[in-house]
Amino acid sequence: MDHLIEDIDILARQEKDTEACETVKVSENTHSGKERKLYIESYGCQMNFSDSEIVSSIMSKNGFDTTSNFEEADVVFLNTCSIREKAEQTVRNRLAQFNTVKKKKPSMMIGVLGCMAERLKSKLLEEEKIVDLVVGPDAYRDLPALVKQVDDGQKAVNTFLSREETYADISPVRLNSNGVTAFISIMRGCDNMCSFCVVPFTRGRERSRDPHSIVNEAQDLFHKGYREVTLLGQNVDSYKWSPEQNNKARLEKSSVSQVINFAQLLEKVAQVHPDLRVRFSTSHPKDITDDVLHTIKRYENICNYIHLPAQSGSSRVLQLMNRTYTREWYLNRVDAIHAIIGEDCGISSDMISGFCSETEEEHRETLSLMDYVKYDFSYMFFYSERPGTLAEKKYEDDIPLEVKKRRLNEVITKQQGHSLERNKRDIGKVHKVLIEGFSKRSDEHLQGRNSANKVVIFPAKDYAKGQYVMVEVEDCSAATLFGKIVD
Ligand code: SAH
Ligand code: SF4
Ligand code: F3S
Questions:
Q1: 265: closest CA among 244, 286, 236?
Q2: For residue 25, what pLDDT band results from cuts at 50, 70 and 90?
Q3: Cα of 379 to ligand 1 centre, how many Å?
Q4: pTM, whole model, 2 decimals?
Q5: Which listed residue, of 61, 291, 403, 482, carries a Cα 20 to 30 Å from 431's Cα?
Q6: Which atom of ligand 1 is nearest the CA belonging to 307?
Q7: Is 6 left (phi over 0), alpha (psi -120 to 50) or beta?
Q8: Nearest ligand (C-alpha, residue 352)
């Protein structure tokens, strides 16, 4: 029964991610005696959550503690996402709610950060009269000056996109942390021009962060008791650090003097400590190399899990999407994962249903691609046209909403079947699990993940978060594995 409730919760969240698009994260209370209080609410992808930790760090050095209650905040920040229309609508509704509070408390400063700030720029100040401050993803170092400007009675905007900013020297204040797993941004921006996607416009050009600062951050986390890091980038496989880039950014001289690619970076982070698990996201099918797969295979602590978004199973649609790979190329990458790492390597995807001019036959090609790969998990969306993107300029958004939704439902149903099938394969096997904390529903059960990123729940015994345990899986649902610790 316990299993069932937990499971419904996870499925509901899965649905929420797909339908309502975005999960929200809210700052927690810190009490270090600072003068003012900051409330920060974050939407969108892990990059955005990671950016909120940088923002909190900058604000904390400038006299702000964080709070989880926006009504007691002096400054309220919404770190926003523009990926789909619904994501922006959620933020607009939230701004309206803040407005009600601001009417009673006019001193409360409201700022919009992140991708929506970048996309709409000063239009946000004009449209949403309650916004005091608009700051894009590359301008967070300017926050103290911008806050001061608002304190002095003006509105403030900085949406300058940088070719160099990586916030490499800023040590993030971990928000909503379980003390076990953390994100590390390894690059920013995106140079791919997928025709449906707003990210290249909101996040600017791709740039990689100094490997030395990445390894330092991983070491620091390990010493603080963290046992898993996830390296983040829109396309981690195109990570490339070169000394020239360092000079161009006019940063302090880096101690790394040779060119470093993603496989080499992965290896450096894996070498921090054998008990520090390493994950990464997102891999781009056009760029993921066998070299990366061999590196994963070589290190036990690099998790056997790859998020490899396909978007569609039809080569024609992929071409319209400007993904620059075909169905065959994608399937070849999946075969390489199976051949080099093994059949148990977790693979997940992102899928878009109802992209411009997608036919029923092409939709069925997506379903058949899913049948071939049998993903462990997928994030599934229907196409949402975004202003300014290539698709908006070149193609008609011609698939009726009901058709998009029906196709999406077929994709979701297929995925649920595959998730269950993949999880059933794990029954009877023993998995190494990193404990992340108590299960959501019971203090008598712990929860963690196996290497393939699957949630595993088991009776607690005397174990605690941060420890590795061997768990024999006895049962499963489409979203979760259930088992018991074996010695
Ligand atoms: N960099 C990652 C994805 C970033 S956005 C990658 O290349 O895979 C996360 C996901 O949102 C995308 O993979 C895509 O599936 C979805 N997405 C992006 N733009 C969208 C749009 N206009 N409509 C619907 N889904 C979209
Ligand atoms: Fe968007 Fe494509 Fe870049 Fe991903 S790789 S962020 S989908 S443009
Ligand atoms: Fe959204 Fe920006 Fe991330 S558009 S998905 S918050 S990069």
A1: 236
A2: confident
A3: 9
A4: 0.93
A5: 291
A6: 8
A7: alpha
A8: 1
